[in-house]
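fwd from M.: "can u put these together and see what the complex looks like"

so here's what she sent:
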Amino acid sequence: MAETKNYTVTGMTCGHCELSVQEEIAEIPGVTAVSADHTTGAVTVTGEGFDDSQVAAAVDEAGYSLS
Amino acid sequence: MAETKNYTVTGMTCGHCELSVQEEIAEIPGVTAVSADHTTGAVTVTGEGFDDSQVAAAVDEAGYSLS
């Protein structure tokens, strides 16, 4: 069953940063939707079967980190 | 003859912003090199036959503005 999880990412400064984070997280198998807001650091991920460590790895790959 | 001109761009917050500005300016005919530094706003453009209005338009297209 699909679930939505909220994360906080540090280091995003603009819309390009949001896109980078979103693109990496979207590659996680099972993820069906992701949004990121650089003004708050809020990242919302929806999908099935993904876990926090995968999200953390994707955020790291994009050049940012979970707070 | 090639010339190098310096500009100051406001609004760049990260390396993605630098890339966006660089990519737009690089499309101006005659431009052979461009660098951008988001920490200072400094943008350096080298080439032949380009003018300030083309640089301003490219910066605007990227979503930023000359100061």
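replying to her w this: The domain at 3-66 of chain B is CATH 3.30.70.100 (Alpha-Beta Plaits).
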